[in-house]
Structure formats: C-alpha cells, structure tokens
Amino acid sequence: MNIYDFKINSIDGPQINMENFKGKALLIVNIASKCGFTYQYEDLQKIYDKYKSKGFEIIGLPCNQFAEQEPGNNNEVKQFCMLNYGVTFPLSEKVEVRGSNAHPLFNYLASKAPFKGFDLNNPSAKLLHSMLKEDLPDYLIGDTIKWNFTKFLVDKEGNVMQRFESSVEPYEIAPFIEKLL
User: Fold this and answer.
1) Which of the residues 3, 25, 35, 59 is marked catalytic?
2) Residues near 140 by beta carbon (within 8 Å), at least 6 away in sequence
C-alpha cells in the first residue's frame, strides 16, 4: 500500500485519485478557517506558487474536528480560502482526520510518519501542547493528528517522508520540498 491507493472527494464533489499525483512531491495538510494557524494559508499558497511548475502540489483537507474551527459547508470553505488567501491548490471535501471516522488517507499518513512530539522551544507549539494537555489530554496519545494544519510531505514516488506539526510554518518546510524536487 502507498499514497496512490487512496481517493478523496474534491471540495466540488468529483473524486480525486491520488494516483493522479504520481511523479509529484506533495504536501497534504488538514486545514480550518477559524484556527489560530489559519494564517498559514498565505505561506502555503506562496510555496505552491513557487514550486508548482517544478512538480509540487499541495492538497488541503478541511476538518471540523478541532474546536469546530471549520464550521462552514464545502462551498463556504472554498470561498473563504479563495477570497481571503487566494488559494488555488486543490481542496477536498470536509473530512475527519482522527478517530473512528478518520479518512483512511490520514490513518495511513499518521502510521507512516508518527507523532514525535511538539518542539516546546517554539512558542506556538508550547501553547498548543499546554492547551491539549489541559483540555484534551487524550489527543496527545498515539500518532493521530493533534490539531489543524498538520502537514505531511510525500515524495515523487508516493513515500511519506516527514510530518510537520501545526506550529511548523510552511516556509520552514521549503528546504525539505526543494530536496524532493
């Protein structure tokens, strides 16, 4: 099994076969419009613009599991991303990324790139860790997705290379993307 065995539904409805991304490096991100990390859309789009012509794609998968930070329907999500951040990278329909109803793609990603903890030297990561520890301690257990804007980098052969937690800024991932291109 690899990343190309999965399918997702686009935000507009048609199914996207992950096999369509063979030969491209991918960044797969669970996204939300009312999250403290929502500002990352801006840098995600910049990275997408910079590397798209070199064989790079970003896929955003909206998720409402974390403090209901993606409450809108698919059309509202798409409009928010386009109008506020000029997002042009592909988006899926809303999905769950953890728990018994998690999309199989996210179960696979988490199994291939386990959670390694938060960088507690990063103020955002420290704050997120403290909030989860106090309010949702079970979220810190295991390798499942911890919060919105968890990012997975996949190479051109469909291998999951690295996981970046919510607090990792998109521009920090650029050197890793460049190595894959």
Assistant:
1) 35
2) 129, 132, 133, 146
State the Cα–Cα distance between residues 135 and 166, nearest whole angstrom: 17
Q: For residue range 143-163, list pLDDT tens digits in order.
A: 999 999 999 999 999 999 999
Residue 63 annotated as catalytic: no
What are the pLDDT digits (tens) for 106-123? 999 999 999 999 999 999
Q: pTM for the whole thing?
A: 0.96
| CA gap 161, 42 in Å, rounded | 23
Specify if 31 maps to a domain.
Answer: yes
Enclosing domain of residue 54: 3-114+147-180
> Parallel, antiparallel, or unpaired for β 25-31 and 56-62?
parallel
How many domains are contained in the chain? 1
